């Protein structure tokens, strides 16, 4: 759910804003902040769909094949995690721009965000894979 909010409430609006006549940020900034968030969301959705179908077969629960499928995709998560610090640096720099800060404040005030900041949503994917393993 948090990844869906990150992509729909932040990434897509910032992409659109970067394409506007007076962009509050560049496409490069958007790519640096969000990197492969859409791909990570897609992987989460695939894993969740597989996990949900397994839960329907409870109490016989076999998850090994889901993790076999997830393992080759860990490089995508790894890239996201490695970029996280840089992502937050770029975000901090962009916040110095009043138009960017105003857009960010509007986006963070959406009901779907439940009062949470963009930084919070950018951090969620880093905790998801360890949760799957536990």
Automatic annotation (TrEMBL):
Lineage, top ranks: Eukaryota, Metazoa, Ecdysozoa, Arthropoda, Hexapoda
Ranges where the DH domain occurs: 1-134
Species of origin: Graphocephala atropunctata
GO cellular component terms, semicolon-separated: cytoplasm
InterPro entries in the record: DBL_dom_sf, DH_dom, FYVE_RhoGEF_PH
Domain of life (superkingdom): Eukaryota
UniProt name for this protein: DH domain-containing protein
SMART domains listed in its UniProt record: RhoGEF
Molecular functions (GO terms): guanyl-nucleotide exchange factor activity
